[in-house]
Amino acid sequence: MKDQMAEARARLQASIDGLERRMKMDANDLEYETHLRQKRQLQQILDRLKEQAE
């Protein structure tokens, strides 16, 4: 179970990192805002998972 949680957290973090990279390259505000919203949602999920693990 802990391995699965660790893998899930790692995948979430990788998704967040990928969105951050894309945000730096986004050409327009709509794409940036979309990626920013997705990043915030994933970060909230990751934070909740970390809190549950403690």
From TrEMBL:
<feature type="coiled-coil region">
    <location>
        <begin position="2"/>
        <end position="52"/>
    </location>
</feature>
<dbReference type="GO" id="GO:0016740">
    <property type="term" value="F:transferase activity"/>
</dbReference>
<keyword id="KW-0175">Coiled coil</keyword>
<protein>
    <submittedName>
        <fullName>Aminoglycoside phosphotransferase</fullName>
    </submittedName>
</protein>
<keyword id="KW-0808">Transferase</keyword>
